[in-house]
Amino acid sequence: MTTPASTGTGTLDVRDSRTGTQYQLPITDGTIRANDLLQIKAGADDPGLRSYDPAFLNTASCRSAITFIDGDKGILRYRGYPIEQLAEKSTFLEVAYLLRHGELPTQAQYDELVYHVTYHTYVHENIRKFLEGFRYDAHPMSMLCSSVAALSAFYPDAHHVHDEEQRNISWIRLIAKLPTMAAFAYRHVKGLPIIYPDNALTYTENFLSMIARMSEPRYEPNPVFTRALEVLFILHADHEQNCSTNAVRAVGSSHVDPFTAVAAGIAALFGPLHGGANEAVLYMIKEIGHPKNVKAFVEEVKSGKGEKKLMGFGHRVYKSYDPRAKIVKKLADEVFAQVGMDKDLEIALELERTALEDEYFIKRKLYPNVDFYTGLIYRSMAFPTDFFTVLFAVARTAGWLAQWEEMLLDKEQKIARPRQIYTGYDERPYEPRINERFPRFGSKDSLRR
Ligand code: CMC
After folding, report:
1. Minimum mean pLDDT among 222-226, 247-251, 278-282: which range?
2. Which of 238, 315, 342, 386 is catalytic?
3. How far apart are the first and last CA of the chain?
4. Which of 80, 175, 270, 365 is 20 to 30 A from 139, alpha carbon to alpha carbon?
5. What pLDDT shows up at residue 444?
6. Mind listing the pLDDT tens digit for each residue in 162-207?
7. Which helix (H) or strand (E) is 69 found in, with range?
8. What is the DSSP letter of 424?
């Protein structure tokens, strides 16, 4: 949540019209404390006033020093550093370190980081066997999610989440092993032999090697692809309190181990409204088929009353151009210069142009988000469509872990436990006559279908 200095501190004077009582609620950092509402009661047996905020539209769930977003101005910073500068000058591992520790590493710290991450790229052979148990058509996100959850069984000491040493080694293991497991999932689905990590390569080079290497004795990474992947990893590394980060924080708040908490993040990321959007963009472009069909498609989206969306457009926080989308669009030009123009780029450009000029999208401040062009880049690098979200998950692991640890060390945090407004039945007696019960869930036949 953006809290410019002008929102500052002060008090909110409220009068409860039910009782006529006047209250003063302190304002800090542009927020009031939800618990301060509890003193506002309509009567002696009233538990106190609560706020109702489905989907957290206007509720800050934590204080965080990791990522800053100004959605109106299109600003994204990790630990104060603008995303544009990090994307241009940094490496993914440097950014992962920055997200966790709050500062960029010195040369000695960076060398140590690279050493440890490289050392831990291998996974237990049983993880490979575990992945081999999936069918040929398994979605790689399902495979990644369950195998990351399975890692907690391989490292039982990771549940000592208050032990800093355990947190350190779990962080290294997750950052190091995610690309390996993602690549194993890819090779399994393709029916290709597993390629083990090559520790002479950099983080992204090694990932590309495990994905693409065939019989050559030494894998020669394409430098344009390596840099493109590095930049995309940096852009996806964190994005403050999004759906999957909230899932990691909420699951982690029970003090479960970080492997299980990150698996929850992967599960949340899988959905088409979140990380799955990059995959959905390509399916949408395929459905459109030709630039001449764009207008009709946009009209269909507009008349669908929210049922059909323009995938890769819109964002809960950005109400102007997503700064990541700008970088991705430039990156796409560099990759296409290397591999040739993507045949669907024309459709994407026409779609963007049409939407940005359309009153419906202008009024709702719907701009392309990071996922709009990433799919086209990934495809031109020969990644299959259902693998796009896996690439997102590998990168976002850095952010999830930084946010998980921040939550764990935050003295104000407790187990996540939202309230509800109960809308169900009042108390009623059990109905023992089975034929008198209301057939709420349909007939046996409908259950079998
Ligand atoms: N296409 C058409 N209409 C849209 C779109 C879209 N992509 N996004 C929002 N709207 C409409 C929506 O129907 C609503 O209209 P109305 O006011 O008439 O009811 C209005 O814009 C406000 O939308 P909202 O659903 O209240 O916005 P939200 O903040 O709840 O949802 C979103 C944000 C990203 C889920 C949504 O914009 C969306 O579904 N976009 C498509 C999926 C997508 O690209 N997701 C990737 C997000 S970026 C990466 C990430 O975070 O993973």
Report:
1. 278-282
2. 315
3. 45
4. 175
5. 56
6. 999 999 999 999 999 999 999 999 999 999 999 999 999 999 999 9
7. strand 67-70
8. S
Whether residue 442 has pLDDT greater than 80: no
- Name residue, tokens 């618990």: 35
The average confidence (pLDDT) of the chain is 93
The answer to whether the CB of 273 is under 6 A from ligand 1 is yes
CB atoms within 10 A of CB 149: 18
Is 315 labeled as catalytic in the residue annotation? yes
Distance, CA of 401 to CA of 100 (rounded, Å): 7
Question: In one letter, which amino acid is 336?
Answer: F
Residue in the structure block whose two tokens are 């002696």: 44
Phi, psi of 368 (to 5 degrees): -60, 140
CA pair distance 391, 233, nearest whole angstrom:
8
Ligand 1 binding pocket includes 265 (Cβ within 6 Å):
no
Contact present, 354 and 298 (Cβ < 8 Å): yes
Cβ(54) – ligand 1 distance below 6 Å: no
- CA nearest ligand 1 atom 44, residue: 312
Q: Name the strands in the sheet holding 81-82, side by side, starting at the edge strand that comes first in the sequence.
A: 67-70, 75-78, 81-82
Summarised one tens digit per residue, pLDDT across range 383-412 is: 999 999 999 999 999 999 999 999 999 999
Indicate yes or no: pTM above 0.85: yes
Strand partners, 13: 24
Ligand 1 touching residue 282 (CB < 6 A): no
Q: Which pair of structure tokens corresponds to residue 358?
A: 């359309």
Interatomic CA distance for residues 83 and 357, integer angstroms:
27
Atom of ligand 1 nearest to the CA of 364: 21
Write out the two tokens for 76. 């994204």
Q: How far apart are CA 124 and CA 115, in angstroms?
A: 19
Confirm or reject: Cβ of 302 under 6 Å from ligand 1: no
Give the count of beta carbons closer than 10 Å to the beta carbon of residue 212. Answer: 20
Distance in angstroms (rounded) separating the CA atoms of residues 328 and 332: 6
Residue from 57, 366, 372, 391 to probe ligand 1 pocket by mutation (most atoms less than 8 Å from CB): 366
Name the residue at shortest CA distance from atom 29 of ligand 1.
Answer: 316
pLDDT of residue 89: 98
